[in-house]
Amino acid sequence: MRKLPLSVVTLLLACGAPAPRPPTPRNAPASASASASASASASASASASASALASASAPAADPEPAPTSAPTSAPARRPGAYANLDPADDYIVGPPDPYTDCETELVAAGVKFKPAALAVHVAGRGKSKIMCGAPQVVTYLRGPGKIAYSAPPLLTCAMALALASFERILQKEATETLGSPVARIEQLGTYNCREMAAYPGWVSEHSYANAIDIGSFVLANGKTVEVLRDFDVGDAPPAKPAASFLRAVSRRANDEDVFSHVLTPFFDAHHKNHFHLDLARFRADGTRPQPVSID
Ligand SMILES: [Zn+2]
Fold this sequence. Notes:
Elements: H1 6-13, E1 37-38, E2 92-93, H2 102-108, E3 112-122, E4 131-142, E5 148-149, E6 154-156, H3 157-178, E7 182-189, E8 211-219, E9 224-226, H4 227-230, H5 241-255, E10 261-263, E11 275-278, E12 284-286
Parallel strand pairs: 5-7, 10-12
Antiparallel strand pairs: 1-2, 3-4, 4-6, 7-8, 8-9, 8-11, 10-11
Helix pairs in contact: 2-3, 3-5
């Protein structure tokens, strides 16, 4: 029987969990649009829980007027971090909400792009009734790392912003570890209306162009780093620079909350030849050996 990585086990186990709390504002998304049929759940999502605001009772004689309301604001998000850290919306299935000031943020992030469209629809073929498409997508032409792509990725706005963040990580790690920046990324696809390859019934973020698969990195010096050939799934620190590079960039992308999911060959055999990066509403760390599996 297929083995389920811990992160997915966690998701499956949580299916019977009580209904999630109402969503809270964060990451400045525009008004909600997507459908919200309850389904999936979360793994460890660190959320900035609001600390209790002590409304200490002031002495009656205190001339200081009491504040009429406590200030409210979205949880702080690190620059360059686009992972969904809000556990309240983990159960929502559907394309991501449009991103407020998308074009302004893309320009500020150093992204050259073209507006694009991807109709939202229900697949409706066979037994599958999954929703596909997204209300806000762009064609990513060039990012701050000046990296070319084998095909211009069609992505949700937030994914385009996250990819720009990833380029900065790539160039720093490639220069330091490999002595040459990345010149080109061989990407294996972004939009694909389908369920998860390993888990039928679970909607892939590819269905919303909210994911990208990356197979290899071509350096400016002409050398290529391939996930299939160079990724080292051993427990020990990798011996070869190419493996060190792949491990470093994938773990930074996860640990710095650039993406919600960073899946590598550590995760399962479906990812032996590529990194899967997405902005799902729940988290999964696929950058480390999966310590627990069930048969
Ligand atoms: Zn993928």
